[in-house]
UniProtKB/TrEMBL annotation:
<dbReference type="InterPro" id="IPR027417">
    <property type="entry name" value="P-loop_NTPase"/>
</dbReference>
<dbReference type="Pfam" id="PF00005">
    <property type="entry name" value="ABC_tran"/>
</dbReference>
<protein>
    <submittedName>
        <fullName>ABC transporter ATP-binding protein</fullName>
    </submittedName>
</protein>
<comment type="similarity">
    <text>Belongs to the ABC transporter superfamily.</text>
</comment>
<keyword id="KW-0067">ATP-binding</keyword>
<dbReference type="GO" id="GO:0005524">
    <property type="term" value="F:ATP binding"/>
</dbReference>
<dbReference type="InterPro" id="IPR003439">
    <property type="entry name" value="ABC_transporter-like_ATP-bd"/>
</dbReference>
<keyword id="KW-0813">Transport</keyword>
<feature type="domain" description="ABC transporter">
    <location>
        <begin position="22"/>
        <end position="255"/>
    </location>
</feature>
<keyword id="KW-0547">Nucleotide-binding</keyword>
<dbReference type="InterPro" id="IPR050166">
    <property type="entry name" value="ABC_transporter_ATP-bind"/>
</dbReference>
<dbReference type="InterPro" id="IPR003593">
    <property type="entry name" value="AAA+_ATPase"/>
</dbReference>
<dbReference type="InterPro" id="IPR017871">
    <property type="entry name" value="ABC_transporter-like_CS"/>
</dbReference>
Amino acid sequence: MALAMMREPLEAQAQQAATPLLSVRDVTLQYQTRRQIVTATYRVSFDVQRQDRFILLGPSGCGKSTLLKGIGGFLSPVEGEISLAGKRITGPGADRMMVFQEFDQLLPWQTVLGNVMFPMRKTGRFPRSEWRDRAMRAVEKVGLAKFADSHPHTLSGGMKQRVAIARALAMEPEILLMDEPFAALDALTRRRMQDELLELWNDIRFTLVFVTHSIQEAIVIGSRIVVMTPHPGQIRAELDATPFKQEDAGSEEFMAFNRKINGMLFGEEKIAHG
């Protein structure tokens, strides 16, 4: 009897590990401009496992940011389904937090701590008595404890992005969505932010879906990379990038992988998986 009771939780854990956290199935997304309806993605399918660092990589206009909006629940598919933990996504939720490229995503009248607490106030996700402590822990994680009482206008671009990341992680989401969050930073700050994001992931092991058009950034940050075709976006390839780190960027293996992805982006490589 005791053995049977032990086996059941183990089987449940194995099933949870095998089931993808995020599932995108045959998803076509469209949006309206002043002149026409634009098809951003066409029948896109992929899975994201728990603790993945999953990269959507492609040229401008391939629909990768639109896909992120679909996962965030801000845009509904015209075809197909997006589900999180087995439940269909029908709108925004605190289980999915987004970090954008723009530095103005912070509330200028709030301090760093106030910005990090803001989603907790809006959603009521945690008891009010926990807001400050949770926010402060997140601020400490991104190395901004000394700036907890500062306002956004006093911060650098990289610091503002760290606040945005802290605000998202403080909510303990099922999945963190990042839309080219470092693209507007200078090269040195961008590299430092990439390193800090990976350090945070090693510490917390959150699930990440990250949009970029930089091949090197995709290789450094990602454990899995989806390479998308130009408009309308489709999946050209899914690749494993786990072995590579920032310090590998000058190695022949890294450069060869970079060239391989570059060929896929520009149609010189056949569609592949794995």
